[in-house]
């Protein structure tokens, strides 16, 4: 097996969810122990995605206006749309920890840490909530509101796909038409709502680079 290398960052621009989902699975099907890991940065048109075992009852009034796609990631229902950073992590966890496999829980922790670090660069304080993957605002008028979501598929061979979304400057109304991640009444915010004016392209690149950095360290 090859020694660990930094993931390649790929910018897909604006891309259809269905075709991107198919491409992730095809990439993972075809990869070998020598395949380089990749991070795919993408912006999607409005779409709701359902995790394995998701309860369609979490789609509320208004949700019929937006396409719904069943996926094979973990988690419940979430929303992707313009103004949101989406990064898919196509990784082989077996080779991303010195001396052995990087376990899924550690992988999630590192992804969440990268999001927290990027928010901090914009003077925003995000935090984890036990038992609820993603990042939430730690204080202020929107304390407890969700700003980033996380959903992964980890195959038995340690290869991953799907990833994270961070809300930058969005139309937030579609979040009110679902129970985000299965939580009724959960407020969802973006960086603009909590006072950070940021260009989507800047946050896309910063978060991808921070993911690469955190995944390569013991942080």
Automatic annotation (TrEMBL):
Pathway: Protein modification; protein lipoylation via endogenous pathway; protein N(6)-(lipoyl)lysine from octanoyl-[acyl-carrier-protein]: step 1/2. It comes from the Bacteria. Keywords: Acyltransferase, Cytoplasm, Transferase. The record marks 146 as: Lowers pKa of active site Cys. It is found in: Cytoplasm. Residues 33-219 form the BPL/LPL catalytic domain. Catalyzes the transfer of endogenously produced octanoic acid from octanoyl-acyl-carrier-protein onto the lipoyl domains of lipoate-dependent enzymes. Lipoyl-ACP can also act as a substrate although octanoyl-ACP is likely to be the physiological substrate. Belongs to the LipB family. PROSITE patterns: BPL_LPL_CATALYTIC, LIPB. The keyword Calcium does not apply. This is Octanoyltransferase. In the reaction, the free carboxyl group of octanoic acid is attached via an amide linkage to the epsilon-amino group of a specific lysine residue of lipoyl domains of lipoate-dependent enzymes. It catalyses: octanoyl-[ACP] + L-lysyl-[protein] = N(6)-octanoyl-L-lysyl-[protein] + holo-[ACP] + H(+). Substrate binds at residues 73-80, 149-151, 163-165.
